[in-house]
């Protein structure tokens, strides 16, 4: 099967590429190998106190390797977002900023 990596249609229709006040950054995370089974997001939340909104998550085996995909939302400014990306990449996670959406309770 193909690994799910797209936003649900409802969120995709709200996605835009420049942040507005009270938006959340939407990130696509790809976990390979050991990062797939490590509590990366849990550790991140404990260490940084940043709240993470999990929008979608999936783990599959491809060619005998475990691969995980997660789409998350976080309300951050650009500097905080850069630090988050650096933190996650340092843990072996591939990070892609997909864009920005209103916070979940706004729709």
Explained architecture:
The chain is an alpha+beta fold and 107 residues long. Helix content is 24%, strand content 37%. It has 3 helices and 4 strands, in the order αβαββαβ. Strands 2-3-1-4 form a 4-stranded antiparallel β-sheet, covered by helices on one side. The longest helix has 13 residues, at 78-90. The mean pLDDT is 84.
Structural class: alpha+beta
Q: Tally the helices: what do you get?
A: 3
Q: So what's the overall shape?
A: globular
Intertermini distance? 31 Å
Helix content: 10-25%
Annotation, overall tally of beta strands: 4
Q: Rounded to an integer, what's the Rg over CA atoms?
A: 14 Å
Q: Which stretches are poorly predicted, pLDDT < 50 over at least 5 residues?
A: none
Mean pLDDT: 84
Write the H/E string, N to C: HEHEEHE
The largest beta-sheet arranges its strands as 2-3-1-4
Largest sheet, if any? 4 strands, antiparallel
Percent strand: 35-45%
């Amino acid at each position: 099967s193909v690994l799910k990596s797209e936003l649900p249609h409802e969120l995709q229709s709200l996605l835009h590429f420049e942040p507005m006040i009270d938006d959340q950054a939407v990130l696509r995370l790809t976990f390979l190998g050991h990062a797939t089974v490590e509590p990366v997001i849990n550790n991140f939340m404990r260490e940084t106190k940043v709240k993470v909104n999990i929008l979608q998550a999936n783990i599959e085996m491809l060619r005998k390797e475990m691969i995980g995909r997660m789409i998350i939302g976080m309300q951050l400014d650009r500097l905080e977002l850069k630090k988050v990306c650096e933190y996650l990449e340092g843990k072996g996670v591939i990070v892609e900023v997909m864009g920005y959406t209103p916070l979940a309770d706004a729709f």
